[in-house]
């Protein structure tokens, strides 16, 4: 397990590892999954799934992988909730206590230290809010993928300086939490790649219908993805990110295509409508 965690931290290499151990007279079996948080380079998330049916991975690998992704999303929700309800509240209390010193008599040295603490605390609060949002955007659960994809690019554009348009060409979409999460994570990762690696100035995010389902497109005007990464041979952070996006979409019987357009790169994630029993 330690070597997998080390590879995750050093090279962003995702992993799924099965652990077996005795506990209270029972044999416990679980699968631990680790991956980089989409849209970041130095934040990672570990989640686990109790594996009561060891044959399920072989019998139905797509459903098995979807279960892993669902367990991962539950862990993200838990962390986001804890950041919002606990960490953010403690930081707000610290800020309130710090403000009580603002009007007190302080030496120039103490005043400088106070201002530095105030600036640092504000930066930490912003980071916690952003991380909580990236882990579990509230509008995704409340209002659906259209609202989430309208909101996220605006915030990302503000933080990155990129010009980003969102075009919803799909019309109303019946709620499908697994599909919505997959599309949202693909958008996070793809836009992060555009910002960090494409040397682009403009990107367009499109959500549209297909004959069998829905498609999410992220197109930029950057320098394009290297050929070896397009061929699935990339082991750097871009290649690993594309691999993670592809696995997430394939878990829903979808496809991820990345191609050069002549003026940039187009990432297309296509996911079919699912039957009620899927």
Task: Describe the 3D structure.
The protein is α+β, with helices and mostly antiparallel strands and 278 residues long. It has three domains: 57 residues, Pantoate--beta-alanine Ligase, Chain: A,domain 2, CATH 3.30.1300; 62 residues; 129 residues, 2-Layer Sandwich (Heat Shock Protein 90). Helix content is 51%, strand content 23%. The protein has nine helices and eight strands. The strands form two sheets. A five-stranded mixed β-sheet has the order 4-5-6-8-7. A hairpin with a 7-residue loop joins strand 2 and strand 3. Helix 3 packs antiparallel against helix 4, helix 6 packs parallel to helix 7 and helix 7 packs antiparallel against helix 9. The longest helix has 39 residues. The radius of gyration is 21 Å and the shape is globular. The model has no long low-confidence stretch (mean pLDDT 82).
Helices and strands, with pairings:
Blueprint: H1 2-11, E1 15-23, E2 26-36, E3 44-50, H2 56-59, H3 61-99, H4 108-135, H5 138-143, H6 145-160, E4 163-168, H7 177-197, E5 202-209, E6 213-220, H8 227-230, H9 237-250, E7 255-260, E8 265-272
Parallel strand pairs: 4-5
Antiparallel strand pairs: 1-2, 2-3, 5-6, 6-8, 7-8
- Structural class, by secondary structure, is alpha+beta
CATH homologous group name of the largest domain:
Histidine kinase-like ATPase, C-terminal domain
Largest sheet: 5 strands, mixed
Which stretches of 5+ consecutive residues score pLDDT under 50? none
Rg, nearest Å: 21 Å
- How many extended strands? 8
Q: How many angstroms separate the termini?
A: 32 Å
**Kindly state the mean pLDDT as a whole number?**
82
In the CATH hierarchy, the third-tier topology of the largest domain is known as Heat Shock Protein 90
Quaternary assembly: single chain
Strand content: 15-25%
Shape: globular
Helix content: 40-55%
Q: Please name the CATH architecture of the largest domain.
A: 2-Layer Sandwich
CATH class category name of the largest domain: Alpha Beta
Strand adjacency order, main sheet? 4-5-6-8-7
Secondary structure tally, helices: 9
Q: H/E order of the elements?
A: HEEEHHHHHEHEEHHEE
Count of distinct structural domains: 3
């Amino acid at each position: 397990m330690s070597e997998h965690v080390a590879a995750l931290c050093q090279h962003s290499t995702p992993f799924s590892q099965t652990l077996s151990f005795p506990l209270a007279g029972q044999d416990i079996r679980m699968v631990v999954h680790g991956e980089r948080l989409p849209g970041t380079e130095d934040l990672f998330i570990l989640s686990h799934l109790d594996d009561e049916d060891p044959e399920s991975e072989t019998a139905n690998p797509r459903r098995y992988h979807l279960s892993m992704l669902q367990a991962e999303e539950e862990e993200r929700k838990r962390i986001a909730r804890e950041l919002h309800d606990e960490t953010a509240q403690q930081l707000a209390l610290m800020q309130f206590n710090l403000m009580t010193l603002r009007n007190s008599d302080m030496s120039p040295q103490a005043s400088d230290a106070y201002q530095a603490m105030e600036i640092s605390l504000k930066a930490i609060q912003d980071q916690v809010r952003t991380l909580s949002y990236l882990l579990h955007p509230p509008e995704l659960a409340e209002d659906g993928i259209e609202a989430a994809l309208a909101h996220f690019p605006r915030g990302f554009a503000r933080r990155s300086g990129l010009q980003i348009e969102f075009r919803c060409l799909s019309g109303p979409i019946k709620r499908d939490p697994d599909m919505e999460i997959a599309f949202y994570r693909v958008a996070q990762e793809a836009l992060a790649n555009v910002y960090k690696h494409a040397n682009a100035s403009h990107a367009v995010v499109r959500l549209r219908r297909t004959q069998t389902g829905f498609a999410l497109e992220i197109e930029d005007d950057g320098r394009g993805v290297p050929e070896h990464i397009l061929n699935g041979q990339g082991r750097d952070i871009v290649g690993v990110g594309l691999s993670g996006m592809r696995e997430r979409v394939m878990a829903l019987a979808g496809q991820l295509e990345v191609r050069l357009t002549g003026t940039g790169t187009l990432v297309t994630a296509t996911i079919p409508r699912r039957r009620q029993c899927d």
